[in-house]
Every structure is written in structure tokens, then in C-alpha cells.
Amino acid sequence: MKLDRYNQQILRELKSDGRIANIQLAEKVGLSPSACLRRVQELEQSGVIQSYRAVLNNQRLGIGFVAYVTVGLKTHTKDAQQAFEQAISGSTEVLECHNVTGAFEYLLRVETQDLVSYKTFHTDVLGDLPQVATISTHVVMDSPKDERQ
Fold first, then answer.
1. Could you give the dihedral angle defined by the CA atoms of residues 116, 125, 65 and 72, in that order, rounded to the nearest 10 degrees?
2. Distance set, CA 87 to CA 3, 9, 91 (Å)
């Protein structure tokens, strides 16, 4: 799929507001509504646009604690990785799980109600997994730039 200037502008606008009406989107990018809709559909069908999501307000949902957690595994085997990934996939507190290079194997984004809830997750979920050797928590104090919001 060719990402010309129109497609790039469409993607920027949709990233900012995924619910924008096609007529408004067409006006912003300088296309007719039918040409704009055709391009959006092509971007969806080609997989460039994977999905649309709602951005939730954590404070209104009672989520007051966000941390990035690094996890090191005891062994560096495929079986250990698969077991860890399967165990962590069922955890509602983990919103992102990335297998990374470096001093540890995984970087998690964890969101809980508060520090007490995080401690429970840390102890009862991460600390209970037999694959886990090390856990290091980096508490988010502020997010001056977060393009997921």
C-alpha cells in the first residue's frame, strides 16, 4: 500500500480522532468524501489501520497507579518465555507486555487502583510465577507525552 501525502494525513487525523465523520476528514485532507472513504477503506483492508479504540480516563475508572515493570526470567528458553507470556496474558493489570533485549526479558505496563493493589499483583501474580527471577518496578509519576491518549 502506497502511503502518499493524502494517506499519511488521513492516518494522522484518524490517530487524533478515530470517530471523525468522513465528510470532516475529507475536508481536512482536501479530498472529496468518496475519495477519502475509498482511501480509508483501502487502509483498513490492507491492515495499515488495524482497529479503532476508545481512550479511557484512568482517574474516572479508579486507576491511580501506573508502572513499567521489568521482568527477568530464570532461564532463557522458549518454554520459559511461552509459559510466562501465557500466564501474564490473563492478568487484567498488565496492559502491555513486550519481549525486549538487554538486561531483562520483558517490559510490562501495569495499571492498578493504587499502590496496595499493585503490591498484591506484584506478590500474588508476578512473584508467584516460577519462570520469574527478577522484578524491577518503575512508577510513573507523570506522562508529559503519551500518544495513546
1. 120
2. 38, 39, 7
Q: Over its length of 149 residues, how does the chain's per-residue pLDDT go in tens digits?
A: 789 999 999 999 999 999 999 999 999 999 999 999 999 999 999 999 999 999 899 999 999 999 999 999 999 999 999 999 999 999 999 999 999 999 999 999 999 999 999 999 999 999 999 999 999 999 999 999 988 76
C-alpha cell at 61: 475508572
**Strand, coil or helix: 74:** coil
Quote the pTM value: 0.85
- Residue 40 contacts residue 10 (beta carbons within 8 Å): yes
All cell numbers assigned to 44: 483498513
CA distance 102 to 122: 22
Which amino acid, one-letter code, is at 105? E
Tell me the C-alpha to C-alpha distance, in Å, between residue 99 and each of 50, 73, 89, 124: 21, 11, 13, 22
Task: Tell me how far apart the terminal alpha carbons of the chain are, to the nearest angstrom.
Answer: 27
Provide the grid cell at 39.
Answer: 482511501
- Going through the chain in order, the beta strands assigned E by DSSP cover 65-73, 94-99, 106-112, 132-139
